[in-house]
């Protein structure tokens, strides 16, 4: 019994020592555990908020730019007014200087004959001219001071608004940087297409469901819908046998306009993003090729396609994604 107790105590001591060492190595509870990764739902909620923030910042930026333009115009007018009054003031100063010189010459007995004739009153005329020039000079001096203050105020306003424009742009850049980060995280959550074989190839699939497309195509379509804010309809199955994947349920068209019209610049950019995303994730999803803007990409770069005679036929109004 004593032997058993001694053995038990020895084992218990060893066990406690091991547990203590492990506890010291691991540190406080949960200290070594990474923070939980945000869920897809949380990421999309953050993305929606940031997109709204960017939209507001874009509006604010445009308004600030317009205010800056007006402030800069006001600054230019104020500087022009200041330049004009400075020129007039310089001229008045010059004339005042000339009169002062004449007074000096008059006191020295060298006043020109015109000013020394009895009709002009001699010194009285000189005094009057001096007074008028002094008053005129003072008026222009006051006006010059006002113009200087107006120009300085306009310059400060333009500078302040310019700084506000930079601040809004900085906030916008920061928000867009966060958006890129979230989109990168979402891209890491891209699902794997169904039917992938061990060698990396894809098992043939038949269309299923009411939408009459393959499960792999359906996964791709929903992934695109989640990843992008699609402005128009998505067309996948088409009964018409045109030699492509639509009648096989293995392709979808993501429309960027309606009625066969050319898409806007913003929707062309969106189509570019969808096409690039599909190519980037082709091996994950099982994308066979992408067609967009009269070009095709199977994963080895874009190649031009022949003219099929129309906006829709040339894939100018929709991004086409075909699946294996």
Describe this structure in words.
Helix content is about 60%, strand content about 5%. With about 325 residues, the chain is of the alpha+beta class. It has 2 domains: about 40-185, Helix Hairpins, CATH 1.10.287.620; about 215-324, no CATH class. A 6-stranded antiparallel beta sheet has the order 1-2-6-3-4-5. It is elongated.
- State mean pLDDT (0 to 100 scale): 81
Rg over CA atoms: 41 Å
Query: What's the helix count?
Result: 7
Helix content: 55-70%
Distance between the termini: 73 Å
User: Any idea what the CATH architecture of the largest domain is?
Assistant: Orthogonal Bundle
Strand order of the largest sheet: 1-2-6-3-4-5
Fold topology:
Elements: H1 2-26, H2 40-107, H3 113-116, H4 123-187, H5 215-227, E1 234-235, E2 251-255, H6 265-280, H7 282-285, E3 287-291, E4 295-297, E5 302-304, E6 318-323
Antiparallel strand pairs: 1-2, 2-6, 3-4, 3-6, 4-5
């Amino acid at each position: 019994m004593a032997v058993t107790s001694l053995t038990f105590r020895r084992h218990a001591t060893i066990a406690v020592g091991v547990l203590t060492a492990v506890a010291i190595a691991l540190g406080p509870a949960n200290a070594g555990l990474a923070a939980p990764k945000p869920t897809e739902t949380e990421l999309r909620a953050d993305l929606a908020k940031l997109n709204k923030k960017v939209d507001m910042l874009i509006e604010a930026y445009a308004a600030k730019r317009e205010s800056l333009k007006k402030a800069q115009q006001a600054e230019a007018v104020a500087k022009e007014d200041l330049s004009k009054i400075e020129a007039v003031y310089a001229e008045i100063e010059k004339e005042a200087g000339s009169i002062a010189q004449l007074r000096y010459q008059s006191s020295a007995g060298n006043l020109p004959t015109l000013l020394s004739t009895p009709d002009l009153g001699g010194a009285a005329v000189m005094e009057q001219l001096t007074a008028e020039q002094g008053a005129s000079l003072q008026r222009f001096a006051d006006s010059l001071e006002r113009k200087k203050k107006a120009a300085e105020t306009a310059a400060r306003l333009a500078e302040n608004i310019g700084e506000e424009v930079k601040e809004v742009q900085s906030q916008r850049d920061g928000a867009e940087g966060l958006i890129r980060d979230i989109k990168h995280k979402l891209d890491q959550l891209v699902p794997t297409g169904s039917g992938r074989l061990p060698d990396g190839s894809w098992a043939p699939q038949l269309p299923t469901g009411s939408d009459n497309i393959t499960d792999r195509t359906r996964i791709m379509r929903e992934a695109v819908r989640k990843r992008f804010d699609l402005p128009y309809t998505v067309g996948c199955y088409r009964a018409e046998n045109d030699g492509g994947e639509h009648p096989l349920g293995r392709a979808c068209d993501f429309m960027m306009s309606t009625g066969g019209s050319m898409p806007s610049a913003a929707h062309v950019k969106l189509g570019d993003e969808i096409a690039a995303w599909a190519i980037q994730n082709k091996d994950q999803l099982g994308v066979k090729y992408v067609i967009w803007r009269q070009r095709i990409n199977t994963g080895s770069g874009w190649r031009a396609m022949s003219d099929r005679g129309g906006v829709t036929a040339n894939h100018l109004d929709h991004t086409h994604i075909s699946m294996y």
